[in-house]
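worker-03 picked up job from queue 'complexes'. Input manifest follows; two sequence lines, order preserved.
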Amino acid sequence: MSGHGSHVENGIWMRAVMMGGIILTIGVLLFATLGIALADGKHDTWKQLEDDYHHEEEVLAAQGNITEAQAKHLVHMHHEEVDAHLSYLTYRVAGITILLMSITYAAFIGIGGFLNASKPQADHGDGHDEHEHHGSSSPIVFAFGIMLFLMGFPDFVVACKAMLSSDATADLSMLAISMLGLVTIVIAVSNWWFEDLPFVGHGEQIATSYPFEGEHIRKAGLWVFIMSEIMVFATFFSSYLRMRTEWCTDWAIRDGVEACKDVPEGTVVTASDLLRYDFGTLLPGAINTFALIISSYTIVLALKTAKNANWKPSTGFMGKLMPTRQAAVRNYLIATLALGSLFIVLKLVEWSHLVAEGFDIGTVQGSIFYIATGAHGLHVFIGLLVMLYLVFKADTVGFDEDNAQGIEYFGLYWHFVDLAWVVIFPAFYLY
Amino acid sequence: MGEHVEFMGKDIYFWNFIVLMFFTLFEVGAVFYDVVPGTDIAITKSAVWAILIIVGIIKGFGIAAFFMHLKDDPRIYTRTALFPVLFVLLMLWGIGLSNPAGVTDLPSWCTPNWDYATNR
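worker-03 finished. Artifact:
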C-alpha cells in the first residue's frame, strides 16, 4: 500500500479537483432526472388532479344538495390531489437537495484540492520527518472561521434575499463577515487536509498526564468533543421532554390521561402525530434509521479492512467490486458517504411534506422538532464533508494498519451521530 | 478488538449490526400496530413508551460498546462519555421543577418549598 512513508506530490491534489468535478456532474444529472424531468411530470399530474377537484367542488356547491356518495367521492379526490402534491414535492426536493449537496461537496473538495495543489512543494531540506504528526493550528483557525460565520449569520440570509431582489438596503457588513468566515473555514480545512494527507501513522502524539495518560491525544480530544456534543443533544431532548410531558396530544387524550380529559382532539399536533400512523409518512424516517445503522457498519468494515494486513479479496461479485485492500477501504467509505447523503435527501423530503401539511417552525412543536432534527442533520452533513476527504485519502495515499486512526476517530464521530438518532427517532417520530 | 471474537464465522460487529437492525424493525412495528398482530391484545401508550426506552437502551449499548469500542477501550473513555449524564439528570430534575405537575405530583424531596409560593 502506498501509505507507508510515501511523499505526497502536490499534483495529487489535482485529483481532488477532478473528484469535485465528477461529484458535480453526478449531482447535475440526478437533478435533471429527479428534480426536473420526473418532477415536472408529477407537477402536471398534481395540477390536473387539483383542477379536477376544484371543478368538482364548484359543481357540487352549485348543485346544493350533496349525496353521501358525492361527498365521499369529493374527499377521495382531495386525498388524490394531496398525494399527487406530496409525490411532486418528493421528486423536486430530492433533486434540489442532491444538486445543492453536490455543489457543496464539489466546492469543498475542489477548492481544498486546488489550494493545496497551488502550494509550493513541501520540502524542508533539513532532514526533518515531514510525515510525523505535528500539532496543528488548523483547528483553531477553523474554529475562528466558524465564529466569524456565525457572527454574521443572523443577517446573512436576509442580506442574501435582499441582494437577490436588488434591494439596495441590504446590510452587506454582516454578509461580508459571514463570507470572510466561510473563506477562513475553507482555508483552514484545506490546510488541515494538507497536513494530514502524508500522515502514515508514525509519531502519533501521546498524552503524558492524567486522566488520559498513555492514550492518543487525538482520540482523547475526540471523546471530549463527543462529551460536549452529548450535552448539546441532551439540551434539545430535555427541552422537548419538558414540553412533551405537558402537551395534550390526541394519543394522550385517547389514552385517558387525566389532565387532558377536557381537551378536544387536534389541539396539539406533534410531528409524530403526522408521521407514525401511515406507512408512507413513516417510511423516510424509518429508511433513514436503517441507512445510519448500515453506514455505521460500512465504516466499521472500512476500518477493519484497513487494519487487516492479511486482507484477501473475496470471490465473485464482491471480489470484482473490491479487488484490492485500498479499493475495498475506499468503496466502503463511498458506501458510507452515499448512505449519509441519502439520509439528508430523505430528511428534507420529509420536512417538505410536513411543511405542506401545515406543520412549520411557527409552532412550539414545530420549533423544537425542526431545531433538534435540523441540528442532527447538520452534524450528518458536516460528517459527510469530512468523509469526502477520507474517500480522497483512501483513493490516493491509502489507509493501512499504521494510519487507520483517521477512519477510527472519524468513525467515533459518525457512530455518535447514529447514537443521537437512536434517541431522536423514537422521541420525535414514534412517541 | 472485537473482530477477534467470532460467532458462527462472523465477528461481533456483524452480529451487533444484525441486532440493531432487528430492534429498529421491532420499535417501528410496536408503534405502527394498535394491537399485537394475530391477537386482541392492545398496545397501550405506556407499553409503547416502555418498548421505545428499552429498545433505545439496547441499541445505544450496542453502538457505544461495540461500534465505538467502549467495551474494550480503557475505562476513562466510558467515564468521559458518561460525564454529561450528570447534566442530563440535572435537566430532568429541572423538568420536574418547572412542569405544572411538579407542584402536586412529584415527591416532596425533589420539589422546593411550594408552600411559600401558594401561601404568601
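worker-03 released lock.
The interface with chain A takes residues 3, 11, 13-14, 17, 20-21, 24, 27-28, 30-32, 44-46, 48-49, 52, 55-56, 59-60, 63-64, 67-68, 74, 76-77, 79-81, 83-84, 87-88, 91-92, 94-95, 98-101 of chain B (CB under 8 Å).
Chain B has two domains: 1-83, 84-120.
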